[in-house]
Amino acid sequence: MEYSQTDDRIILKNPDSFNITQILECGQCFRFVKTADNEYRIIAMGKILNIRQSADCAEFYPCTLAEFENIWKKYFDLDTDYSSIKEKLSRNDEIMSAAIEYGSGIRLLNQDPSECLISFIISQNNNIPRIKGIIKRLSETYGTKEGNDYLFPSLSQLADASEDDFFKLRMGFRARYVKDCVDKLVSGKADLENTQKLTTAELLESLMQIKGVGQKVADCVMLFSLGRREVFPTDVWIKRIMEKLYFDDKETSIKEIHAFAEDKWGSLAGYAQQYLYYYSKAYIKDNK
DNA sequence: GCCCAGGCACTCA
DNA sequence: TGAGTGCCTGGG
Length: 288
Hints:
The protein has 288 residues and is α+β, with helices and mostly antiparallel strands. Helices cover 50% and strands 12% of the residues. The protein is globular.
């Protein structure tokens, strides 16, 4: 990926497989606002970053070369060769080819694990505007102010909050889960820092010890923040689009869908999931 | 006013 | 093991 520094910004020239709208709108993260056409502000990794995309480049600002190389390169997965992934997934699969064509600028992020975990616990049985609202209130209450925005709170900033404090942020029944999650992370009963040595099955099991974390939430955390690209988070949208496109409209269990995805896409299943998720939003709407 | 949303815990067979 | 049910809240 070719990039250069100009004034307060980093410019990616003709970035391959990089469409900021698709990356942010494909459901993997929550803390972003659209500030203009093809322009977004994100709050992540303890920073505020603007991204403006035009025909032949993407600008990151304000951003130093060191920030870009130490934080954003990894965050936006810029060292991964998406052309090769797309080529492998498309082979002998017209359905996937269409999904990839539709979301060709998607990239899987590498987010902060504890933010990702807490956010996806909040996401369950909930809708996106409300999820964003709860996370915003959580940040405004416990996080550090930066300009006009608030960073996602650190674990130490959340450590003393009670279940009732979380409930007051209108988390509903999820308040108990977030409290349990923070407690386990602070005490070390759950650990997101030293996960490399665990197999994906072991990591799944350890995440699911947290209340309110089932397979779907755990899979999202593993895929979006812990680099486990082989998992296939199966939410209602994925279930619908898989049944529609790969199972001839037949009701199919999540277990069966997982087995199918593992067999068909293997170590690339997570990428396949994102293309399908983004595709499903448009496809199901158009074919109602 | 009802329905449901990017699941999960809990119960019961 | 698997199916069934309740859950906070607020936008459509």
